[in-house]
């Protein structure tokens, strides 16, 4: 019921719409009226927990648990908000108190133990994540300095139409700055501006090394702010770190690679960006996932060990109670066996019951407490009472199941061996090679061999 209430309350919080001048839609008014009902349910939950667990003064009480403290804060702030709203003309801004309602979805965590494991893992991983963050920052600074050395000021020249340069001498500083902010016209056939390299002779637009030269009718000139209005650049350490961060998040890093290729060519330029992606994106950022995974495994192991400990303690308590009960019964049986008024049938029943109790104790792993009740006690009563001993002799069916079990054991030992494992891996590898060797225009002899092989 509480979990359903929390989910419904989250839906109501998501449906609220805030308008200017404190205007409200009809649905917002209705949702505000439901607030008191949710508060009553949460108060009832907290009250019942306090009655059952106690408030704060002894171990295991209500406020000794972090999740209960969170629930208590939600309830108290809810009442504070309601009281201030009922005050009428108060000038107190309730937005801060109302913002505490965003903690209500966290009440789900207190009711679902698996979510508690996840959240505790994230909290405990904050210190290692901070250390990894420093390592990532150190890597970004190093790569930014390298980019600053190679690419500083390299992206401020682009193609302008001949005779249409923005840098005309003018007495007006404002006019000069306005011309500086103007973006040149995009070249026909290109979707955006591209940095270029100036040349004194007419060359092809696309060179073999990737350097971009302006086509006929355009001149490579400055000043251009650069890609993304100069933000994506290596002009200073700040912009360089921002550009490196953009690349290691793999957001538009290929565009940045093509921009640098337009100025420096693609012969050695790819080394910087490929190493940036491999070490920055594939390695550095995935360290965070590794830390979270490790902390989650530790927390889950701790929870499982505690659960196993509690289960073992309950089992030991049950065994102690059972031992006491069996001891009490056996003492009573010994007294009954020594009495002269006990019949032979009653003695047989008592002896068989004692044998069953011995079997239970042996299964529980405590053979020392098992009594040495043997078949001799039945023989002492007479040979006619010992005939039940032959009931459990092996039949042909029992022999068959014994051999079947032995065969299954041998097969399981085979499939779990390392040789069988590597044999399967080799078969899978060759199967993959055969499937990958197919092509659209394959050799005739190879095709015939492939068909014969399969």
Automatic annotation (TrEMBL):
<keyword id="KW-0107">Calcium channel</keyword>
<keyword id="KW-0325">Glycoprotein</keyword>
<dbReference type="InterPro" id="IPR050599">
    <property type="entry name" value="VDCC_alpha-1_subunit"/>
</dbReference>
<keyword id="KW-0109">Calcium transport</keyword>
<keyword id="KW-0472">Membrane</keyword>
<dbReference type="GO" id="GO:0005245">
    <property type="term" value="F:voltage-gated calcium channel activity"/>
</dbReference>
<keyword id="KW-0813">Transport</keyword>
<feature type="transmembrane region" description="Helical">
    <location>
        <begin position="37"/>
        <end position="60"/>
    </location>
</feature>
<keyword id="KW-0812">Transmembrane</keyword>
<dbReference type="Pfam" id="PF00520">
    <property type="entry name" value="Ion_trans"/>
</dbReference>
<keyword id="KW-0407">Ion channel</keyword>
<feature type="transmembrane region" description="Helical">
    <location>
        <begin position="270"/>
        <end position="292"/>
    </location>
</feature>
<keyword id="KW-1133">Transmembrane helix</keyword>
<protein>
    <submittedName>
        <fullName>Voltage-dependent N-type calcium channel subunit alpha-1B</fullName>
    </submittedName>
</protein>
<feature type="transmembrane region" description="Helical">
    <location>
        <begin position="129"/>
        <end position="151"/>
    </location>
</feature>
<keyword id="KW-0677">Repeat</keyword>
<dbReference type="InterPro" id="IPR027359">
    <property type="entry name" value="Volt_channel_dom_sf"/>
</dbReference>
<feature type="domain" description="Ion transport">
    <location>
        <begin position="2"/>
        <end position="302"/>
    </location>
</feature>
<keyword id="KW-0106">Calcium</keyword>
<keyword id="KW-0851">Voltage-gated channel</keyword>
<dbReference type="GO" id="GO:0034702">
    <property type="term" value="C:monoatomic ion channel complex"/>
</dbReference>
<dbReference type="InterPro" id="IPR005821">
    <property type="entry name" value="Ion_trans_dom"/>
</dbReference>
<feature type="transmembrane region" description="Helical">
    <location>
        <begin position="420"/>
        <end position="437"/>
    </location>
</feature>
<keyword id="KW-0406">Ion transport</keyword>
<feature type="transmembrane region" description="Helical">
    <location>
        <begin position="237"/>
        <end position="258"/>
    </location>
</feature>
């Amino acid at each position: 019921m509480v979990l359903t209430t929390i989910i419904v309350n989250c839906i109501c919080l998501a449906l609220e719409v805030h308008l200017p001048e404190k205007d409200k839609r009809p649905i917002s008014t209705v949702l505000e009226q439901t607030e008191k009902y949710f508060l009553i349910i949460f108060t009832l939950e907290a009250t019942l927990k306090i009655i059952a667990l106690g408030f704060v003064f002894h171990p295991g009480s209500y406020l000794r648990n972090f999740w209960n403290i969170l629930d208590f804060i939600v309830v108290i702030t809810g009442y504070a908000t309601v009281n201030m709203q009922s005050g009428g003309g108060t000038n107190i801004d309730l937005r801060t108190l109302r913002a505490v309602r965003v903690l209500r979805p966290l009440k789900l965590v207190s009711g679902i133990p698996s979510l508690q494991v996840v959240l505790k893992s994230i909290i405990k991983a904050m210190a290692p994540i901070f250390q990894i963050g420093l390592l990532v920052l150190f890597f970004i600074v190093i790569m930014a300095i390298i980019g600053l050395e190679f690419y500083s000021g390299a992206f401020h020249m682009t193609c302008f139409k001949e005779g249409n340069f923005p840098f005309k001498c003018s007495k007006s500083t404002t006019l000069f700055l306005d011309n500086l902010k103007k973006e040149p016209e995009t070249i026909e056939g290109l979707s955006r501006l591209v940095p270029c390299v100036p040349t004194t002779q007419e060359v092809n637009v696309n060179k073999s090394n990737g350097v971009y030269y302006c086509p006929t009718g355009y001149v490579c000139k400055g000043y251009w702010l650069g890609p993304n209005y100069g933000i994506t650049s290596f002009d200073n350490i700040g912009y360089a770190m921002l550009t490196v961060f953009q690349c290691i998040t793999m957001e538009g890093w290929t565009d940045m690679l093509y921009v640098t290729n337009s100025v420096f060519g693609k012969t050695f330029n790819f080394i910087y960006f490929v190493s940036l992606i491999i070490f920055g994106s594939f390695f550095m950022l995935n360290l965070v996932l590794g830390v979270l995974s490790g902390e989650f495994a530790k927390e889950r192991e701790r929870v499982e060990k505690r659960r196993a400990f509690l289960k073992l303690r309950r089992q030991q308590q049950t065994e102690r109670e059972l031992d006491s009960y069996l001891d009490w019964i056996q003492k009573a049986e010994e007294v009954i066996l020594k009495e002269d008024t006990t019949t032979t049938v009653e003695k047989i029943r008592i002896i068989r019951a004692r044998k069953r109790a011995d079997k239970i104790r042996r299964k529980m792993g405590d053979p020392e407490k098992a009594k040495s009740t043997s078949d001799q006690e039945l023989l002492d009563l007479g040979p006619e009472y010992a005939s039940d001993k032959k009931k459990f002799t092996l039949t042909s069916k029992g022999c068959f199941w014994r051999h079947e079990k032995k065969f299954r054991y041998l097969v399981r030992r085979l499939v779990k061996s390392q040789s069988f494992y590597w044999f399967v891996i080799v078969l899978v590898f060759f199967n993959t090679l055969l499937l990958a060797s197919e092509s659209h225009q394959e050799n005739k002899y190879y095709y015939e061999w492939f068909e014969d092989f399969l």
